[in-house]
Specification:
elongated; 5-stranded mixed sheet; 5 helices; 2 domains; 5 strands; single chain; alpha/beta
Length: about 160
């Protein structure tokens, strides 16, 4: 691009400038094409090796989420229930966001609510339901198979 600007300044002809610009664009496209083709082929090879389940979960698991924890939540929380999510400050905000997004889609038709006091079930990642000021039933502790994260506590709310 700098070459084109330089040529445009030195050249009085707009035709020459347009030709130089077109040549620079073609040259840069040709230089990048092999790398782009390699990346596409590599991605296709990797995608073919994944099962449908692995492909579905590759995004959140690639971000460090143990999706099996959410599967265990789905087994505990009834389909017609509401639930609230809470996160400890010890949980990295990016991990909390990935967990929240995966849970919101994976736990459907269950409904997420913002207020733990209004929820049928409390899900706390590194936070005990009792720390949220909610009376809860027995707490199920769901440990992640990935190290370093606190466990997820889940309990039904008692009203």
């Amino acid at each position: 691009m700098l070459l084109t600007v330089h040529l445009c300044r030195r050249s009085g002809s707009t035709v020459q400038a347009a030709t130089a610009l077109a040549a620079a664009l073609v040259a840069s496209s040709l230089a990048v094409a092999p790398v782009t083709a390699w990346a596409v082929i590599s991605d296709l090879r990797n995608a073919r090796e994944l099962t449908a389940r692995e492909a579905e979960r590759s995004g959140p698991e690639g971000e460090g989420l143990d999706t099996a924890v959410v599967d265990r939540l789905a087994a505990l929380i009834p389909r017609d229930a509401t639930y609230a999510l809470a996160f400890s400050p010890r949980v990295h905000p990016d991990h909390a966001l990935v967990f929240r997004l995966w849970a919101l889609s994976s736990l459907l038709p269950r409904v997420a609510v913002a207020n733990p006091a209004a929820a049928d079930w409390i899900v706390g990642w590194g936070v005990a339901p009792s720390d949220l000021g909610v009376r809860a039933g027995p707490v199920h502790v769901l440990a992640s198979r990935r190290g370093g994260d606190p466990p997820v506590d889940v309990a039904s709310a008692r009203r």
